[in-house]
Design brief:
alpha/beta; four-stranded antiparallel sheet; 10 strands
Amino acid sequence: MVHPYTQIKVCNLHKSYHDGEGRELHILKGIDLEISKGATVAIIGASGTGKSTFLHLLGALDVADTGKIEIDGEELSTMTRDESARFRNQQVAFIFQFHHLLNDFTALENVIMPLRINNLPVDKASKIAEELLAKVGLGERLHHKPFQLSGGEQQRVAIARAISNSPQILLADEPTGNLDQETGEQIFDLLLQLNKDYNITLVVITHNPTLAASMQFQYKMAGGLLHPVKKPPIY
């Protein structure tokens, strides 16, 4: 058996914000966490406990006050602005509760966009986008615009767009929160299938305990810390 290596290492992570009256709100209070390559991780917890803040730090959308995050041995806080942008574009991908698709573009064009930003030729970008849309079950909806798609289909386009640049890590913030239960389960099954097919490390914030339980590792955010919900398997 091949032992998975630690892809994400979080050490003593702290993050605070100030409210409108200047009071400091200490959101994250010394988080320690290790995630192996290809693992699936669910983070649950009440609203306002810092789950999204933590996800934004993992994806280099925000910077911690103290502590460090290492991705494949590289510390995020030491990256230059250009290196951080490259990391977000090539190594990590985000899926949010709302799809944030470009409304004037077709499904195919939405998925092509990040590939073109990476200077991939149009024909190659189109081929990759078509394959990914087929992978997520939208091979017959390539030329439909978001308003012509259901909520679940829109989220599938967003997922195809997110993985178009072959990210190593997929961060999802309530990806099923805006969908009905059946469609949400379908989206969650799709994410797990992509994890299996591409060995993408998957970190998901969800309020759905059933969906969270389907992940290999589950943590609850409370008191500014992550608490294991179930014992991780022994490798």
